Amino acid sequence: MAQARPPSRPAAADREQRLFRRRRLARRLGVWRLVALAVLALGLVVLGVYALWFSSWLAVDDVEVEGTDLLSASHVEQAAGVGTGGALVSVDTDAVERRVEALAAVASADVVRRWPHTLLVSVTEREPVAAVTIGSAVRALDGDGVVFPAPAGVTDPLPAVRTSGTVTATALREAAGVVVSLPDDLAEQVRYVEVRSADEVVLAMTRGRTVVWGSSSDSATKAEVLAVLLEQDASVYDVSVPGTPTTSD
Length: 249
Description:
Radius of gyration: 38 Å
CATH class of the largest domain: Alpha Beta
Strand content: 25-35%
Strand order of the largest sheet: 6-5-4-7-8-9-10-11-12
Distance between the termini: 144 Å
Number of strands: 12
Domain POTRA: 58-126
Pfam families: POTRA_1
Number of helices: 7
Order of helices and strands: HEHHEEEEEHEHHEEEHEE
Low-confidence stretches: none
Subcellular location: Membrane
Number of domains: 3
GO biological process, one term: cell division
Mean pLDDT: 86
CATH topology of the largest domain: Rossmann fold
Organism: Nocardioides bruguierae
Largest sheet: 9 strands, mixed
């Protein structure tokens, strides 16, 4: 049986040379692939930066406002201070929230980007509990004693609070606390609440009666005591110290 002869030296050399060229080409292709991927990645980054910051593709086209009743949407938009055409990503949402919350009628605001073109401003307004007269102006008063403008259609039906002289924010908060604590049957007999200081809140009642309420502390107890006192015929009822109430003509 004839034995296979080993390849001649020139044939073996040619095969080794072909393998070497293939390996060198593969290495070159690998390098070019890496270069191409790097260029592609860089291009995508540049395109993303351009789209986010410089193009009109992701620019602010609209500012939407929701949650307003006391305020108009245009009023909130003006306070937000965000114009159209700028990059949506560049809007400082925290700063916009602070500007909107600076409006007296706003309790809190939340600002989010709604891609690709909208900035959404969600507003929580203060809840008015009384209409307070300061000088000649009528404003709304919330439960924290914050005074803010509101339409007459909102303030007219509210319990009336009047101020005597210059009162502090603490005094207004006490007056608001008294208003919200009054039972319905007692509130119906109150013409208005007068606040003179934080410790001196007075109820002007129907039939010319006056109730010295004091501060808003122990208001539930004061209301119970007053309900009993009102059965007596008097002009002034003092429940500022509910444990020792008094009446006088």
